[in-house]
Each structure stands twice: as C-alpha cells, then as structure tokens.
Amino acid sequence: MSTAMNFSSKSFTPRPPDKGAFPLDHFGECSAFKERFMECLRHSGYESAACRQSAMAYLECRMDRQLMANEPLEKLGFKDLINEKSEEKPEKS
Amino acid sequence: MVGLSYAAVPLYRLYCQATGLGGTAGTGGGAERIERMEPVRDRRIRVTFNADTHASIQWNFKPQQSEIWVVPGETALAFYKAKNPTDKPIIGISTYNVVPFEAGQYFNKIQCFCFEEQRLNPQEEVDMPVFFYIDPEFAEDPKMAKVDLITLSYTFFEAKEGQKLPLPGYQ
C-alpha cells in the first residue's frame, strides 16, 4: 500500500482480507495444532517469530482438511522455514 | 466508536462494490509481496487484541491471546474464540478496526473470519484465526516512527436468517 499523505483524514476504512474468510473449523479438526501454537506463544512471551513453525503447521492442517485454500507455504511468508525443512530432510514426507 | 464500527459494514460493502476489491484472492501483487518481503527485525511491534459484540448478538467472543509481538514483513497468526451459549443457531458477521488509524493502511489481513456470515449452532464453540502481516513499508514511514503498539478490534453483529448481505467475492 502506498503511503498517502492523509493530512486531515482520521477515518479508518476496513479492507477485505486478501484471501477471504477462513471457513469455520466446526469439528475442531485443527484444534490440536492451535493448542500447540498457543502453548508456544505462552512459553515464548507471545513472540510471533518464535512460533512460526507451529503457525505453519496449523495452516497446513487447515489446507489438508479443506479448511483453507491450498497455497504454497512460501506465498504465506514461510519460505525460510521451508528451506530449513528441505535442508534437514532430503525427502519431504 | 460503536456507531462507526456499525456503519463500517455497509460502508465496506459500498467501498468494495465501487472499487471491485472484494474477491481478488491470490492476486499476483499480494502473494508475491508476501513471498518477497523480509522481516524488519529492529521494529518490534506489540499487537493487542480486542473483541466486541454488538448488543444484539449473544455470542461469547474473545481473543485467545491479549497480545502478540511481531515485526513488519513477517506473517503472524492469532486466534479469537466464539461460543454460542444459547439453544438457537446464531449467524454472526464481523468487522474490524485498527488503532492507531494511520497504522491501519499497513495492517494486512491475509485471511480471517470477517465480513462473511458465520453460523454457530447451539452451544457450539469455534476457534477463529486471523493471519496477517504488517507491511515492511511501515518501518519506512516517518509518521509511524513512534508507533509500537497496534490494536486490532473485531466486532460481531447478528445477521438475521434470510438476510441477504451482498458481500462480494467470498463464498
């Protein structure tokens, strides 16, 4: 987004999310992944950077269960974690 | 504030219809930007979370974390939770607000639960994720130099059964 010089405008315009809305996880299929993520947050002092593996795992869970459109993880900002993963394991399981 | 938020839903609808921005999921610009952006590690920002419900909706709605520390240029995940404690299904729809207002232009939601009807059955409780990032340009804006706290507020309203909300794009 370009930085407009809004001298007088103090109003906020809500914008739609880029990829729309998450379907609700009515059956709690990814609750375990969410719990792991929340646990990580609690232990790390709510540091987002420390819990990106867990965040990625949660989103992967959603994608696996059609609770999120499939998207390459690099396009969700996880390219550094993917590179790490592929260095550790020659075969992606 | 409540009045402003309440007006935001129809205002957003008008805005989207005029600019045609709704439903442009996966546009090259958005996804490429996310793939290319680099975290700005020396600008830690505290994001706090608010949850409101309009008087008409009986959901219990709250954030699952009061705050999260992020940096611009790095995607982040956060959760809200909603429960319908009644014995009737309730359909809710939410809008959001970002404070300070000027930081809102840098706050990008990749995916969340807003602007679309969400139905909770009696006694049902669900997690509601927000996946977002703060644009790296935030760190280059001199007006944002003193901003180290951003508050994200969601407000849920009740959507009446059968009410047609022509929110574009999201099915």
Automatic annotation (TrEMBL), chain A:
Subcellular location(s) of the protein: Cytoplasm
Sorted UniProt keywords: Cytoplasm, Disulfide bond
Cellular component terms (Gene Ontology): mitochondrial intermembrane space
Region of interest called Disordered, as start-end residue ranges on this chain: 1-20
Gene Ontology BP, a term: mitochondrial respiratory chain complex IV assembly
PROSITE patterns reported for this sequence: CHCH (PS51808)
UniProt biased composition (Polar residues): 1-12
PANTHER family reported for this sequence: CYTOCHROME C OXIDASE ASSEMBLY PROTEIN COX19
Membership in a protein family: Belongs to the COX19 family.
Protein name in the entry: Cytochrome c oxidase assembly protein COX19
Species of the source: Copsychus sechellarum
This protein's encoding gene: Cox19
From TrEMBL, chain B:
Keyword Membrane: yes
Pfam families hit by this protein: CtaG_Cox11
SUPFAM superfamilies: Ctag/Cox11 (SSF110111)
Major subcellular site: mitochondrion
Keyword Transmembrane helix recorded: yes
InterPro entries, per database record: CtaG/Cox11_dom_sf, Cyt_c_oxidase_assmbl_CtaG
Keywords: Membrane, Transmembrane, Transmembrane helix
Localization in the cell: Mitochondrion inner membrane
Molecular functions (GO terms): copper ion binding
GO cellular component: mitochondrial inner membrane; protein-containing complex
Membrane topology term: Single-pass membrane protein
GO BP field: ATP biosynthetic process; intracellular monoatomic cation homeostasis
Function: Exerts its effect at some terminal stage of cytochrome c oxidase synthesis, probably by being involved in the insertion of the copper B into subunit I.
PANTHER family tied to this protein: CYTOCHROME C OXIDASE ASSEMBLY PROTEIN COX11, MITOCHONDRIAL-RELATED, CYTOCHROME C OXIDASE ASSEMBLY PROTEIN COX11-RELATED
Subunit structure, interactors included: Interacts with CNNM4/ACDP4. Interacts with RANBP2.
Name listed for the protein in its UniProt record: Cytochrome c oxidase assembly protein COX11, mitochondrial
